[in-house]
Amino acid sequence: MNPLLAEFKTPYNTTPFSKIKNEHFKLAFEKAIELAKKEIDEIVNNKEEASFKNTIIALDFSGELLSRVSSIFFNLNSAETSDEIQAIAKEVSPLLSEFSNDIGLNEYLFKRIKSVYSKINELQLTSEQTTLLEKSYKGFVRNGANLNDVDKETLRTIDKELSETSLNFGENVLAATNKYEMLLTDKNDLSGLPDGVIEAAAITAKEKNKEGWLFTLDFPSYMPFMTYADNRELRKELAIASGSRTFKGDNLDNQENVLKIVQLRYQRANLLGYKNHADFVLEEQMATSPQKVNDFLKNLLEKSKPAALKETDKLSAFAKELDDIHTLQIYDTGYYTEKLKHKLFDLDDEKLKPYFKLENVIKGVFTISNKLYGLNFEEIFDIDKYHKDVITYKVTDENNKFTAIFYADFHPRPGKRSGAWMTSFNDQYIKDGVNNRPHIVNVCNFTKPTETKPSLLTFNEVTTLFHEFGHALHGILANTTYPGLSGTNVYRDFVELPSQILENWCYEKEALELFAFHYETGEIIPLELIEKIKASANYMEATRMMRQLSFGIADMAWHSTNPDVILSVESFEKTTMEATQLYPHMDGTCFSTAFSHIFQGGYSAGYYSYKWAEVLEADAFEYFAEKGIFDKKTGDKFKEFILSKGGSEHPMELYIKFRGQEPDNDALLRRAGLLNNDEF
Known about the structure:
alpha+beta, Glutathione S-transferase Yfyf (Class Pi), Chain A, domain 2, 4 domains, 27 helices, 55% helix, five-stranded mixed sheet, 6% strand, Neurolysin, domain 3, 680 residues
C-alpha cells in the first residue's frame, strides 16, 4: 500500500519517511488530486443554498491530502533531491498547475463563493471568517474567475508554462552550483584561511576521492574563502564561478528562462486586467502598489547611499594602504571588510566562532523562546527523518501541552539547495473541535563539524539560524481555525517580521550569555567581545543596505517593465542596478540568472519585503527594548497578535494591536545609524 495515501499511524501523525519510496509520489499526487476534485464537486453540486459553512469553509479544508503530499515532496526536492525526484517534479508540476486552474476557473464554484460574498454584511461573521471570505473571493477574481472561456484556456497554458520554466530555472541553479569545484593542491594557496576551513576542505576532497583541498559554491565553503583567502586570483576565480554559474551559454544557462518567466508573468497580469506582474502582486500586500514600493526603496537609497560611498572610500583606502590595491573589486570586498573590521574592532569570526557551537546556539534560541513564549523543546528519537542529519524535537507550551513537531536540518550536502528556509509538513488548523498541531521544518547550510572541531558558526550563521527559527515560531505558535489563514499564510511583506525581529537577540548581552560558551573551556563569551559585537553591529551597514536595495530594485524592474523591450538579461540588469553599484562589474557574471528568490521562489515583486519587514521589526524591537528584551508581557502580546494570528486579520491591524501605533519608518535608519549618514 502507498504510505502517502494511508493514515499515518505514527507518533504525532508524523511523516513515515522510511516507508516512502520515490515511486510512491506520482501515484500519490494523482490520487490526491482525484480526491480533491471530488471534494470540490461536492461543494459545487450541493443542492443547499451556498453558505459560509458549505462553501467557504468546505473549500478551505478541501485538498488536505494533496497539501500533505505536496509539502513532503517539495521539501525533499529542495532538501534531499535526486535526478529521480527532479524528474517526478517535472511530471507533477503541470498536474498541480492544471488542478489549481481547475479550481480557480470553475465558474460554478465561483458562483457559490460570489453568492456568499454578496451577503458579507449580513452574515455576522467573526473577523477571521470575514478575512477568509474576502480572501476566497478575491483569490478567484485575481486568478481569472471573471475571464471568458477563451481567456481561461490561455491562463491555463500560461500557468503550466510558468510552472515548468520556474522548475527548470531552479534545477539549473542547483546543478551549476554542484558542478563547480576548485581543487587546491598547493598549501601556499591556503594562506589566510582558518584551520577549520582548511580541514573542512580536506574532508570535502576526501569524500570525493580527491587529494588536496576542495572548495565549492556551497555557502559554508564559498564565504570563508572569499573572506579569508590571501590569494586574490583564487578569490576572483571563485567569485566569477559563482556569478557565472547559470550564465555561460551552456545547457545550464538561465537567460532564456528568465526572459520567459517575466514574459509569462506579464502576459498573465495583462490577461487579468493588471498593468504588470508587480501591480498584480502588490494589490494584496501591505505596500499596495509598485509606486509605493519604489518610493520606499528610493527613500532608503537616498538616505543610505552617501554613507555607503563613504564606507567604500574608506575600504578602498584601507586596501590600497595594506596591499597597494588601486581598484577594489567585488571579490576583494569580503576580504578587506573583514580585515578592516578586525583593525577597527579587534573582532573577527575566528575569535567569535569558538563561542558559537551549533548545539549551544540551538539551545540558546530554544531558551529565548521559552523566556518569551513559554515553549519547551525536547529532542525525540521515535519519529522518522528524511536524512540522518535531521534532528527532531517535540514542542510543548508552558502547561506541558503538545504544541508542534520541529525538524532541524542544518548542514549542506549534494542533494540540498543552497540557502536557508522554513517550511512545514503539516499545517495548524482547528477542525471538529480538535486543534491540529503543525510539523515545522528549518533547513540551513551551516559549517559542518570536522574530525577535530564541532560545528562552529560564524556570527552571520548565528543570525541566520535565529532568522529561520523566527519563521519556525510563526508556524509553531499558529492558532487559527482555518488552514488558509494559519501560520505564515500572511502578506509577503509581513511574513519576515517574526524572522527578522528574532535576529536582534543575537546582539544582546542578556541573550548571548544564555548560549555563547567556549566549546572547549565552557567560558561564557567575555563582556569585551559582547561589547565589540554591539559596537560593530552597524559596521558597513550602508553597504549591506545597498546590496539588499539592489536586489529589491532589480526585482521591481523585472516585474514592472514590459518584457518586449528587454533584449538582454545582462544589459537590463546592469541598467537596473546601476544606481546601487558600488564596485566595478565583473565581466561574464550575471546575478539575475541565479536569483532563485524571484524566479523560482515566492518573492517575485516581493523582494522589497525584507526591507519593509525590517522597518516593522526595528520599530517592534524598540518596543521590546523599552520594556526589557525578556519582558513576558511584551512577549505575550507579540505571541497573541503576531505569531499566533497568521493571516486572520489585516497585518497593520495586528501590528497596531501589538504596538499600540503604526510603525515609525525611521526606526530602521535610527538603528542603522543612517539618519545623519553616520559612517559604520
